[in-house]
C-alpha cells in the first residue's frame, strides 16, 4: 500500500494544477496562485515520501514531471499570457491591429498576438522537465532553475499587484517590455547549465547543510518583511547563493 502514497501526492499536485489552470483562464489569479502553492507543496512531499518509504520508481519520476508540466508550466504560461494582454490593452477585449478577433456565440474577443509570447514559459518548462527525466547527473543538485521555483516567480507578479499596493511597482510589472524580458529570462534560466542546490537533506547537521539553512532563514525574513514582493528576490538569492556555493566548493 505504501508504494501508492507518493503517486497519490503527485496526482494531488496535478489536480491542484488543473484547478489553477481553470482559475487563471478566468482571471482569478490569486486563487490560481493559491492552488499552485498547494501543488508545489505536494510536489515537494511526493519525492520526500518516496525516499522515506523507499518506493522510488520510474513511473513516479515520469508522473511527477507530467504533473509539473501542468502546475509549474501551463499555469505560469497562462498567467504571463494574461499579464501581457493587460499590459497592451484593458480588460478581456483588445482592439489592436495586431490582434486576432474571434466570434464565439455572438461575443467578440480580440486577443493580442504579443500575449501568446507568454506561453513560451510553458514550452521551456516542458523542455526542461523532459531533459531532467533523462539526465542522471541531477540527483543532488538542479541544472537550471526548477520549474516550481520558476512558477512561483511568475505567479508572484499578480500577487504583488493585488497586495503590495505600490503604483510604481505595478507600473513596472504591467510594462510590456518588462514582461517580455522576464519571459525570455525565465526560459533561459529553466534550461541553463547553472548548477543550483536542491533542498534535499541527507542529514540535519548544519555543517553539511549550511547553505540550505542560511537560505531558508533568509527566505523567512524576506517573506515577513516584504511579503509577496520578496518572491522574485528569493529566486535571485537562490541563484546567487548557488553560484557562490559552487565557487567555494571548487
Tell me the layout of helices and strands.
Blueprint: H1 5-25, H2 29-53, H3 58-88, E1 99-104, E2 107-112, H4 120-134, E3 141-143, H5 147-163, H6 167-173, H7 176-190, E4 195-197, H8 210-226, H9 230-249
Antiparallel strand pairs: 1-2, 3-4
Helix pairs in contact: 1-2, 1-3, 2-3, 2-5, 3-4, 3-5, 3-7, 4-7, 8-9
Describe it:
By secondary structure, this protein is mainly alpha-helical. It is 67% helix and 7% strand. It is built from nine helices and four strands. The chain has helices at residues 5-25, 29-53, 58-88, 120-134, 147-163, 167-173, 176-190, 210-226, 230-249, and strands at 99-104, 107-112, 141-143, 195-197. Strands 1-2 form a two-stranded antiparallel ribbon. A two-stranded antiparallel sheet has the order 3-4. Strand 1 and strand 2 (107-112) form a beta hairpin. Helix 2 packs antiparallel against helix 3. The longest helix is centred in the first third of the chain and has 31 residues, at 58-88. The protein is globular, with a radius of gyration of 19 Å. The chain starts with a helix and ends with a helix.
Q: Main sheet, how many strands, which sense, barrel?
A: 2 strands, antiparallel
SSE run: HHHEEHEHHHEHH
Summed up, the helix count is 9
How much strand? 5-15%
| Cα gyration radius (Å) | 19 Å
The strand count comes to 4
Estimate percent helicity: 55-70%
The overall pLDDT average reads 86
Low-confidence segments, given as residue ranges, are 90-99
Large-scale geometry: globular
Strand order, largest beta sheet:
1-2
**CA-CA gap between termini:** 44 Å
Structural class: mainly alpha
Amino acid at each position: 500500500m505504501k508504494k501508492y502514497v507518493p503517486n497519490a501526492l503527485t496526482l494531488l499536485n496535478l489536480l491542484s494544477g488543473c484547478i489553477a489552470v481553470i482559475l487563471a483562464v478566468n482571471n482569478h489569479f490569486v486563487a490560481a496562485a493559491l492552488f499552485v502553492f498547494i501543488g508545489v507543496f505536494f510536489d515537494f512531499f511526493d519525492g520526500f515520501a518516496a525516499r522515506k518509504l523507499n518506493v522510488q520508481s520510474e513511473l513516479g519520476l515520469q508522473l511527477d514531471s507530467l504533473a509539473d508540466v501542468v502546475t509549474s508550466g501551463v499555469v505560469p504560461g497562462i498567467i504571463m499570457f494574461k499579464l501581457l494582454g493587460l499590459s497592451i490593452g484593458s480588460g478581456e477585449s483588445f482592439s489592436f491591429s495586431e490582434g486576432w478577433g474571434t466570434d464565439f456565440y455572438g461575443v467578440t474577443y480580440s486577443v493580442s498576438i504579443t500575449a501568446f509570447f507568454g506561453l513560451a514559459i510553458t514550452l521551456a518548462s516542458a523542455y526542461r522537465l523532459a531533459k531532467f527525466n533523462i539526465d542522471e547527473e541531477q540527483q543532488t543538485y538542479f541544472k537550471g532553475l526548477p520549474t516550481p521555483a520558476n512558477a512561483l516567480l511568475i505567479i508572484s507578479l499578480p500577487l504583488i499587484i493585488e497586495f503590495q499596493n505600490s503604483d510604481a511597482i505595478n507600473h513596472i510589472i504591467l510594462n510590456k517590455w518588462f514582461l517580455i524580458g522576464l519571459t525570455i529570462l525565465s526560459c533561459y534560466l529553466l534550461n541553463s547549465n547553472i548548477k543550483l542546490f536542491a533542498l534535499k537533506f541527507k542529514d540535519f547537521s548544519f555543517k553539511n547543510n549550511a547553505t540550505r539553512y542560511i537560505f531558508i532563514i533568509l527566505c523567512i525574513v524576506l517573506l515577513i518583511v516584504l511579503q509577496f514582493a520578496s518572491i522574485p528576490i528569493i529566486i535571485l538569492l537562490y541563484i546567487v547563493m548557488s553560484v557562490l556555493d559552487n565557487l567555494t566548493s571548487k
